[in-house]
Amino acid sequence: MSKARTIRINRVFLMVVVFLFALIIAKLVYVGLSPVVDGVNIKEFADSRNTKKETIVANRGTIYDSNGEILAQNVNSYTVIAYLSESRTTDPENPYHVVDKEKTAKLLSPIINMTEERILELLNYDVYQVELGPGGRGLTELVKEEIEALDLPGIDFIKSTKRYYPNADFLSYTIGYAKTDEVNNVIGELGIELYYNEILTGKNGYKEYQSDMYGYQIANTEPLIEEAEDGNDIYLTIDTNIQMFVEQAMNTLTEYGVDWASISITNAKTGEILGISSSPSFDPNIKDIESYYDPFVSYTYEPGSTMKIFSFMAAIENGLYDGEELYNSGQLMIGEDKVTDWNTYGWGKISFNRGFYASSNVAATLLAQKLGRDKLKDFYESLGYGKITGINLPEEQTGVINFKYDIEVANAAFGQGMSVTPIQMVQALTSLANNGTVIKPYIVDKIMDGDEIVYEGKREELRKVASPETIKQVLELMNGTVNSGDSIATGLSYKVDFVNLGGKTGTAQIASESGGYMTGYYDNIRSFAGVFPYEDPEIIVYAVVRRLTDTSLLPKAVKALVEDVATYLNITSTDIIKEEGTYEVDSFINTATKETKEDLENNGFEVITIGDGNIIIDQYPKKGTTINEKDKIFLLTNGTNKTYPDMTNWSRSDVTSFANLIGLSVTFDGYGYVKSTTSKTGETINLNQTLKVILEPIYNLEESLTENDKEWQEYNVF
Fold it and tell me: Fewest 10 Å CB contacts: which of 313, 397, 419, 594?
């Protein structure tokens, strides 16, 4: 019989085991009862490991023109990616990675504008997935669909949002641009996009939920959702049709290159900016930007003789002006300094009225001497010079109108030794259309939060600077500068046939950084300030350009612009009478096409009927418009078959009238009259296509210039 074994446990060992077990129990109890262990909140730590938060991005507001045309909007953007890992594919018949790399590179190359070699290089990386950039970034929905149609295994897309500008290089500085940052926020960086960034941006929301180890929401758990608040929409005062005319004028002005230029069209009664173009410009989609400052509000320069509008206005308002008074033009000594007229020798003894027509510096100086420094400076300040207008665009500059000494006062009377911005010139010119009251220019028509108007732009009177009688005299002077036929008038080349354009030319020397002025032949700033019709101004046109090499381009650009805008807005001057006589247009709507056409042709008018209908449903010019015999009358009929007429030798305004009546988009190249178009006579009109028109003069421009035109083009300053 064997003896049982006895196992003796060391008492010390047993005590150690019991002690360690007790420590473990104590730790578990402590962890279970205490919210914080070793400085870590256990509950928050556990929740954070299982909580996922996703941003709900607010949609950035859209920018529209005054007619609701989209100028800037958010669109979906896509980046092409390629999955390279074979582990993604479980069924060889349905691969989820790139199988044929050569084929993939070949088919994608022309679509994303990358070489096959570069794409193939990316596809051969030993990675799970690769982005096909830079060509495969920022793709539109249409390009994405084109790639999807190729049905290439392993090709996928990452969706994001980007800002899109459908008109490309169009009103660029005013709209500005916005770009997407690394976390997909769209941020404005120039123009309206910058100035109203917060209003356009809105407020992002979020979705927070409990997730499993793969990041998916756990079933039967409620997410916490904070909805995004979309940004507000902004409607500008810009009319896209007028903006198109302004852009075309800028193309004419800058045909041979300039340092910079600005052209604008403004509603003279209300201050609404209807169109602005600046050069150099850029396409906000690709951001090919030369300067981040908008010439319209941020460039300061010496305005030259366009300031004579206001120095003469100040003299008239202060009772110091007699237009028939004679003075000796040519030269005038101011102490040891000499003021000369732009041609240095003047025009002999002439009246102050003719001195304005001729842009005489001596006349302006004599008036400034009568006024004195304080009155002239106070008057300029009352017009808004020397301070910002407050228009809702970033980086507006003030300019400088500090002048003290006699020669400085003289210079300021003809726009030298002081600086302004184009927007200040526009603001001052509003006084001509509002009986001497200055109106604040504005660019934002309204801001919408959904269907609610949260801001509305409106006419804002700033201050009264002159009486209606003073304004009438100034307008007569501006009319005479362009329309008098006086051989010494500097604005004759700006004359427009069917509307009285009143205006003032300006040419200023460019200040040198080393002191004094630059002396090169083209070292000047040319400008034109005008209103039309001068009898009761509705529109302000202001154009300014630095270092213009072909001086004939400024009047060409301005004349075409005035003609287009006047035609579009149906503005005419009823006192313009030609030898053939005039005719007040009646309403032809709802009359028979054949009989009306015959009646008008029997009265000497050229009639263009649009469509094959028997009843007239619209017309141009409108009822009540005064036109000249042999002018064109456009009649839109109820017929569905609309074809192009023969437009050979039509004027630019004729084409614009035709296009506006039927809603056709049109672009112009050149100046003068129609040489050719992209349509054929008799071809059916497609309103989804843009008609391109080539213009050229039908006369020799050099022969058509008056001797005065040729003379003043040779000089730098007037």
Answer: 594
